[in-house]
Design goal:
Layout: E1 2-3, E2 6-7, H1 11-28, E3 50-55, E4 65-69, E5 75-78, E6 92-94, E7 103-114, E8 125-128, E9 135-137, E10 148-153, E11 158-165
Antiparallel strand pairs: 1-2, 3-7, 4-5, 4-6, 6-7, 7-11, 8-9, 8-10, 10-11
Amino acid sequence: MRSGGFVLTRARGSMRKLLSSLAVVLATGVSLAADLSITAGSVLASSQATIYNGTAGATITAGQVVYRDASDSNKIKLADADASATASRAFGIALNGASSGQPVRVVTADPALTVGATLSLTAPVYVLSGTAGGIAPIADMAAADYPVVLMVATSTSVAIFNPTALAGTTLVASP
């Protein structure tokens, strides 16, 4: 399956494993870390990135995860895993800061995105946070969050970025 300019393979099997791991994390209540601390000036798209140019519908900082609000002329706003189904539809990561009404460039997919933060290779999967615009390790995902996998770290500074909402998925932690 092609998405955002690069090929996704074995998505079903990988997604099943990801959800299995997530269920274990939710069942144990383990939290590994807080949201990534992103240096806005260090967020860099690779030459293979897919870029979208839009208009901010809120104040946005480079490195924050965003969505397009169809009910507001597709303005770019901060994505949030626990706000609503609409706000959890992560569309990309902002490359520049912008106030409402200003232009904003968004990376929608990138096989080599420099995130502007230190990434873990032992827990390389990152998801949309319950904090507006934030990126969290998968272990920090709460049971009530809309599950959106954002990226997988390939080094301590670079990740394969391709936001994937697990639409219609309910996470259930077994006792």
